[in-house]
Specification:
This protein is of the alpha+beta class. It has a domain at 26-74. The chain contains 2 helices and 4 strands, in the order H-E-E-E-H-E. The protein has a 4-stranded mixed sheet with strand order 3-2-1-4, covered by helices on one side.
Length: 84
């Protein structure tokens, strides 16, 4: 008789607890326009962490880093280089 081998969970860790930790954002940030660039700043410190000429790459980077954008004042109608 052949049995399927299943990976064992570590003692004391429930699946729900692990999933909730992974889903929780690591930082709260804001996305805004600063002169010619877009910036991502930590909230509430307002310390600029990332800067780019377009907003979309910053949104992707925040998602990758599990940073939650709580304020996005970049505006959907901003004219960026990629729009031309």
């Amino acid at each position: 008789m052949v049995r399927a081998i299943r990976p064992r969970r570590k003692a004391g860790l429930r699946r729900k607890a692990v999933d909730s930790v992974l889903a929780r954002p690591k930082r709260l940030v804001t996305l805004r326009r600063d002169a010619d660039d877009f910036v991502v700043a930590f909230y509430p410190e307002d310390l600029v962490a990332l800067r780019h000429s377009e907003a979309e790459p910053l949104r992707k980077m925040c998602a990758f880093l599990r940073w939650k954008i709580i304020s996005d004042s970049s505006g959907a109608d901003d004219k960026t280089i990629s729009a031309f």
